[in-house]
Design brief:
The chain is mainly α. The protein has 20 helices and no strands. Helix 15 packs across helix 19. Keywords: Membrane, Transmembrane, Transmembrane helix.
Length: 326
């Protein structure tokens, strides 16, 4: 393929990245056998996505975030503690304490941000360094936080800490180690020049992950269409509401000014991104096999908004960055 045509193709993929991500998830629902075949590759696909996203993190930006840890600490507190309390309190205004949707929404709100948040950050133009800093401790704390929240809700989330730690170690070790090695071998300038190709690969990989992660969602949608539709709409609404709340909190509330000082718009967008998009794979694994089928179905449905929400928020993120640049 001529370089000009290849450049045009990669630009087209990046420009329509949100649609491709949604298409990957949609394909996984429409072709459940294909999703089942792709599902065993989920871990390596996730590792490769995270590795490429980390290549796009400028060392100076990551060091700057580490030198100002207050913002990252507050975002972690917001994600793991404030969000589930907020969701529970608001949900109790309209739902009984034992309602399965209230339990599901609260568990989702207590789940750490997805490990591939940095990849989403690259595609949506947020602070990737902050996403990387926040993603590691929140996921490491998941084996402690999720069972505690489930116990308070009256249900058990049997997370094996050793298995979870091993999975995280593989993802973090392979991604960070690979990014460090490649940067050392070829140098930061070459990586910067390859940024368009890297971003294109990230877009395609996120779409592939969306295909693999939809394993089981299609058959569940056929078996219980009414319940699954309600679950998808509810989890999508929660995703968007938490994103909007996270953006607002770090711009207008006490977190934004009294504690941290003015927060840059890219950092606020990162806080919004991880507020709404949680590690649903980890949560689904945690509650599977516990005999609560309605809860499992909601968690399965909750994976779809991870691939639908970028279609909705991408123009809003662009508008926020544009307004901040004026």
């Amino acid at each position: 393929m001529p370089p000009s045509a290849r450049g045009a193709l990669t630009a087209l993929i990046r420009r329509h990245g949100a649609w491709l991500m949604a298409a990957g998830a949609g394909l996984g629902i429409l072709l459940p056998d294909l999703a089942a075949a792709a599902n065993p590759a989920l871990l390596p696909l996730s590792c490769l996505t995270m590795f490429l996203a980390l290549l796009r993190v400028e060392p100076t930006a990551f060091i700057a975030v580490l030198r100002r840890p207050g913002l990252g600490i507050v975002v972690i507190f917001w994600i793991l503690l404030a969000c589930p309390v907020l969701v529970w309190c608001l949900g109790r205004l309209v739902l009984p304490a034992d309602d399965v949707f209230l339990r599901a929404m609260t568990l989702i709100a207590a789940t750490p941000g997805m490990m591939s948040a940095a990849a989403y950050g690259v595609l949506l133009g947020t602070d990737v360094a902050l996403l990387t800093l926040v993603g590691l401790p929140t996921n490491i704390l998941a084996p402690v936080i999720l069972p505690a929240v489930a116990l308070l809700l009256g249900g058990g989330a049997a997370i094996d800490p050793a298995v979870t730690a091993l999975r995280l170690a593989v993802m973090i070790g392979a991604s960070f180690g690979g990014a460090f090695l490649v940067t050392a071998l070829i140098g930061r300038p070459r990586i910067r020049r390859a940024a368009p190709a890297i971003d294109t690969a990230i877009t395609l990989l996120v779409a592939a992950v969306g295909l693999a992660v939809m394993h089981g969602v299609g058959p569940a949608l056929v078996a219980a269409p009414g319940f699954m539709t309600l679950a998808i709409l509810s989890t999508l609404a929660l995703n968007l509401a938490l994103q909007a709340t996270g953006f607002a909190v770090f711009g207008f509330a006490i977190f934004g000014f009294a504690i941290l000082g003015p927060v840059p718009v890219q950092a606020r967008l990162s806080a919004a991104l991880v507020s709404g998009n949680r590690n649903m794979i980890l949560l689904l694994a945690a509650i599977s096999g516990q005999g609560d089928r309605p809860l499992e179905l909601i968690m399965a449905a909750g994976q779809l908004p991870l691939y639908l929400s970028p279609l909705i928020v991408a123009p809003l993120y662009r508008r926020a960055r544009s307004r901040a640049g004026r």
